[in-house]
Amino acid sequence: MSTTSPDRSRLSILIELLVVVAVLVGSKLMFDQFIWKFAGPLSLLCTFIAIGFFTWRYHESWSGFGLRKLPGWKSWALVLPQALLGIVAIIGIGYGATFAGDAIGLWSADAVPEGVEDRWGDVVGNLPVYLLWLVVIWTSAAFGEEIFFRGYLIKRFTSLLPDVRWAVGVAVVLAAIGFGMVHMYYQGFRGLVVTGFIGLAIGTLYLTYKRNLWPLIIAHGAVDTLGFTAMYLDLDV
Question: What is the pTM of this model?
């Protein structure tokens, strides 16, 4: 199966993208009404159903969104160091953007956004809740968000901008903005900015890794696991 459909017009790609984003936003607003804590993962699931329909409709493969089959042992050997670089980038950019915003008065680095406490406050010392969120981390955040915000959006935005000189760079920026926006609902403006910069760094690594998502999925999951483990143990990090 081919990874792309050569006869697709920009109009059909735009319509697909609008439908997918509408499903993401609409399902998020719906789930917000009765299961707010899990509205993000559930809306992402609905979004993947929509993407799955379009990939079937246009005879595409998910490998075109970064889920590549690694060709040989050298590629497999690179996954771990690439993931480690991703971990360093995510943590470094995250802390750097957080304290830079604090330094210029945008927010207080010591203050925890109210939505974070509301969403995850019961993780502390609660093993079943902690384990549940680890499942969500690796399925929705690491796997789902990387496919959508890196693999899918960068590919689609690039296809919509074939005449733009820096189309891929613009696509990375737009995907990073979207990544920041979906974290804004519980992290506020600080979450938009910090997560947006993290998305920009991950998107750049995605291109550097020749659109191979596997190291970034591992990096994303590992960083979130570290964060939730610190939260479960009530560590001040």
Answer: 0.92
